[in-house]
Each structure stands twice: as structure tokens, then as C-alpha cells.
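As a warm-up, study this chain.
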Amino acid sequence: MKPSAAWALVGAQFGLLAGLIVLPAGDLWPRGAAAYVSAGALIVCGILVAGAAGVRLGPALTPTPIPKDGVALVTTGVYRWVRHPIYTGVLLAAFGPVVLGASGVHILGWLALFVVLSAKASGEEKMLSERHPGYARYASRTGRLIPKFFHQEMDSRE
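Now compare it with the structure written out below.
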């Protein structure tokens, strides 16, 4: 992935996140106390997942999907269950404004964010596969954005 494409995806990601926050609310569902509590829980959980993933990456953390040279592949902590937990956390947190926004535009914005983060993950995985010989095996037993809870059973069938 070219650096310009990587930064374009980062820009699109942050633009969509900002849009989800500033879009006017709709009326697809009630926006009462339950919506506020649910949205708050989603935002907090998403931030915790993304934060834990960022801490686990340590020196491998980078703002773009281009992996740093000379760092080990991280497969522990939240990376044991999900290959891109920062993206998972971002999607989880971004769903909070969707719940509060209660509009079709919010839903479309979240889906666009999902597409952007999936593109980032796909490009990143190509580069990680080139740099880390064990990446294909890790990817086969670990979910991209959603955990594969039964990977031990899958491994035993190999």
C-alpha cells in the first residue's frame, strides 16, 4: 500500500467518525435514557478495546495501516482473539453515535466506516503476510474484526 493511500484511508476514517458525531439526529427509534446508556456503554467499551490494543502493540503502533519495519508480530492480549482490535474498538465506539443519531444517514456513515476499516485491514494484512512468515496461520485461527471463539477446536482438526 502506498503511503498516500494509507493516509487517505486514515483521513476517511476520521472524517466519517466526525460525521457520525455532528450529523443531525433522526427519529428511526426513540432516543430516551436507554439509547443514551447504550451509546455510552458502546463508546466506553470501544475505547477500552482500542486502548488495550494500542498498548499491546507498543512500539509497533503506527497511525497508518503500514506496519513498521523491524517489529515483531503481536498475537497476544486482545490480538489473541482479533487481528485488528483497534478497528474493532473504533467500530464499537462509533456505533454509540449511531444509536444516539437514530437516522439512516448515521447507519450509512457507520457502514462506510466499516468499509474503510476493512480496506485498511486488508491492505495491512497483505503487508504483514510479506513481513511475517507465521501471519497466514495466525490469520487462519483469529478473526479479522470479530473474534473466532472456537479457534482451539479448529486447530485440533488440522
